[in-house]
């Protein structure tokens, strides 16, 4: 019953804008919060907007635990008709998310690698395909998988701190961003910018990221939350159903591509990451990070 | 006998630039005009350029009658070897075209919806696939289907009046632009701009439309026709055959996609538009328009 | 053993960045040069960078001989583990390359046309799919096939001389750029810019080429070689293997498309170029060029 090529992204029956929250039912508390170990979620029921805060020290790296919590939290909100939009931000200063947790990819079993990669895929499938409005409030650096989270949202606002940077820098580590990271990136910045940035593994400072279209807007530090709320309100002014179908129409081809090749993608990741040369490269990178810290 | 993947767009045998008009035959009048109820066409045979003026008050909405006349007029010109290019503009102040006529989509039979949608498809297939040079001289607001007409031309010039706007604002009405509106839009502005603009159902004022690449040029009101003629002359300086094959190469994939799914697209539209929730949404929108007028 | 959809581009086993040049073996001379009739190659083994200079007077047109030498030279470097990057430039003042040699396409046998076209394809397949870092140092005008060489590199730097221009101007000659010229162009500048530029057969002066993204950077004449070396060093700072896999991921779809339709593409070219109307058009163009010279 949808226009051609358009299917609802998630299993949730589409909510009908503000009207959806006026149907009969038990009275709802004005604000609910739930938290696991690594992610804090606050839902403001008056606006229909949830805030998802990453709080996994030291750098919000995307460990298997983090990814699992992320998917559970997102699914909870997706199925909660009181929630229409999510703002993603970090509870840790200076870092949005450092990306995939390298310790999950180094010196583990192939079974572990496969489980981990499936969780990374799951995170992206749910976020890029979310029915909700998703806004990234990028309050720190955001390399690799951290950048992917931002790229998968509907809108990206970044603090204009010159110490922050964002990009898919996998090539710098001697590894290759998977095709669906690339597809997501191309959808945001176009083929040429993606080709150059991915090959160089570039981490872009805020003004450059803005110029390239990697983020939509830069704001001074103190304005980030206010701006994120204003953007969210603008997107929520649209009727959910039409917006969701439109989003699905734009993203379906790229989502379908991973769904169609998911097991193959896992096999490829496991083979690639298990190679001794890659393991060595990652160990060297971790050594370097340790030295930097001390 | 064409380069790979390149097929002439229309059935007309390609004209060979200016030479095509010098072949023997009865002498031609310097200017011919024909008019139906809703569209006025003037062909200047000395330049090979036709002007197609929309004159369907109050807002040039794309009714079934308008679309039928549009297709007949365009086919006439396509088959007229004296015509190499068409400029589209409005004979009504402040509005280029208000887009699809909502009265055709509201409270009618499913047969009517199917017939109407086939006419919308036909209009786009003929215009986006035209062998002629097509220039939109946008002298008023141009939402939804009006924007599609502009997007389907080879070049877009817009009056820089701050009261005008242009965009695919379907989402604002609770409906979804079909995939081939989206494909046409993406071909002009790229994936990211299209994703955001479609989800928000944005109507862009001229400077923003220009910045996004949705229109190619802004001109002061009094310069529009002069500019359109100059752009047309620039495009007609090229040999028709090579230009036509190149245009076909660029647009064929997107045209073929609708041709391959045309009946399915009609079915989808009819099912979607027949839903009570959508009918209600359109009725509310029409009420709002009526109140605005009075 | 590669991530999904990622295959090494060439047959050469991937080198591992700088480490690749530190393996045991016979000591290497600091600089080697080889030259055929039309191309001069200098390889600086300390940096791993080769300079390929086109020196085929009067205008570096891509004749069958030139293309053959180009492919042999590129393959030599591709298989030379001492070489990681190539800078392409012209040894002839004011012209980078004038593109395909029209004399190869005019008044010859169909067998000759087929052989010539296969050589053009081969040049592009090797260059666009090269494992090495490729930088175009554009020190003169670069129409048609000359522009294709530049577009196929990883990075384009152009002298900002207002007398120079660059573009795929085939339509001006009454011919049509093949689909893989178009695909390469779209990957660099996007669909809209490509559509307009190809239909008009535009030759863009340096500032316009830069604005459209057709070249990445403009430099004053005396800075070109220095800048090319600096850009090359930046790209070579990345580990080769990851960069090569990333490049392949970005370019594979477009390369595969020609590989899949190569014979068909040759047939189409031969049929098209053999047409009397096209031959006439090319003869007129050659006459015009001759008159210009004298």
TrEMBL record, chains A, B, C:
<comment type="pathway">
    <text>Lipid metabolism; fatty acid beta-oxidation.</text>
</comment>
<dbReference type="GO" id="GO:0004165">
    <property type="term" value="F:delta(3)-delta(2)-enoyl-CoA isomerase activity"/>
</dbReference>
<dbReference type="Pfam" id="PF00378">
    <property type="entry name" value="ECH_1"/>
</dbReference>
<dbReference type="InterPro" id="IPR001753">
    <property type="entry name" value="Enoyl-CoA_hydra/iso"/>
</dbReference>
<keyword id="KW-0496">Mitochondrion</keyword>
<dbReference type="GO" id="GO:0006635">
    <property type="term" value="P:fatty acid beta-oxidation"/>
</dbReference>
<keyword id="KW-0413">Isomerase</keyword>
<keyword id="KW-0276">Fatty acid metabolism</keyword>
<protein>
    <recommendedName>
        <fullName>Enoyl-CoA delta isomerase 1, mitochondrial</fullName>
        <ecNumber>5.3.3.8</ecNumber>
    </recommendedName>
</protein>
<comment type="function">
    <text>Key enzyme of fatty acid beta-oxidation. Able to isomerize both 3-cis (3Z) and 3-trans (3E) double bonds into the 2-trans (2E) form in a range of enoyl-CoA species, with a preference for (3Z)-enoyl-CoAs over (3E)-enoyl-CoAs. The catalytic efficiency of this enzyme is not affected by the fatty acyl chain length.</text>
</comment>
<keyword id="KW-0443">Lipid metabolism</keyword>
<dbReference type="GO" id="GO:0005759">
    <property type="term" value="C:mitochondrial matrix"/>
</dbReference>
<keyword id="KW-0809">Transit peptide</keyword>
<comment type="subunit">
    <text>Homotrimer.</text>
</comment>
<dbReference type="InterPro" id="IPR018376">
    <property type="entry name" value="Enoyl-CoA_hyd/isom_CS"/>
</dbReference>
<comment type="similarity">
    <text>Belongs to the enoyl-CoA hydratase/isomerase family.</text>
</comment>
<dbReference type="InterPro" id="IPR029045">
    <property type="entry name" value="ClpP/crotonase-like_dom_sf"/>
</dbReference>
<keyword id="KW-0007">Acetylation</keyword>
